[in-house]
């Protein structure tokens, strides 16, 4: 029986396969796949989850930059941050890290907030 242990090292997910004795499908509280293909799918899902987590983190950081510029009433900086945030959101939506309608909604709300700066 094999156990897949996932480690986060140098900002990369690393899977380590370890032999395990014990009850079938249970080793140290972790349910383990019995087939090579299932182990591969699990490894792929961990890699995908890591990529999606990184994309969502980039989205949050880009939105924070726009919000900070809006808070400081800096129209030019907010516009630049909005264009870069829109790009990051579109990429995340295109890669499937978030739903495209959610990305569009966030871009729209940020644009509305940036346009509200000049009205003040």
Strand content: 15-25%
Mean pLDDT: 84
What structural class should be given to the helix and strand makeup?
A: alpha+beta
Helix content: 55-70%
Order of neighbouring strands in the sheet with most strands: 1-2
Specify Rg, calculated over alpha carbons. Answer: 21 Å
The backbone outline, from C-alpha atoms, is: elongated
Distance between the termini: 66 Å
Tally of helical segments:
3
- If classified by CATH, what would the architecture of the largest domain be? Up-down Bundle
Secondary-structure element string: EEEEHHH
Q: Describe it for me?
A:
The protein folds into two domains: 2-50, no CATH class; 53-119, Methane Monooxygenase Hydroxylase, Chain G, domain 1 (Up-down Bundle). 63% of the residues lie in helices and 17% in strands. It has helices at residues 36-71, 75-94, 100-119; strands at residues 2-9, 12-19, 26-27, 30-31. The strands form two sheets. The protein has a two-stranded antiparallel ribbon with strand order 1-2. Strands 3-4 form a two-stranded antiparallel ribbon. The chain starts with a strand and ends with a helix. The model is unreliable at 18-23 (pLDDT under 50).
């Amino acid at each position: 029986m094999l156990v897949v242990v996932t480690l986060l090292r140098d900002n990369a997910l690393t899977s380590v396969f370890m032999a395990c004795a014990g009850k079938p499908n249970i080793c140290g509280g972790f349910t383990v796949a019995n087939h090579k293909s299932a182990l591969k799918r699990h490894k792929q899902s961990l890699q995908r989850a890591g990529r999606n987590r990184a994309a969502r983190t980039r989205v949050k950081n880009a939105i924070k930059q726009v919000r900070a510029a809006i808070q400081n009433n800096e129209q030019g900086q907010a516009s630049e941050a909005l264009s870069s945030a829109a790009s990051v959101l579109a990429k995340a939506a295109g890669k499937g890290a978030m739903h495209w309608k959610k990305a569009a909604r966030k871009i729209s709300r940020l644009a509305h907030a940036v346009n509200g700066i000049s009205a003040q």
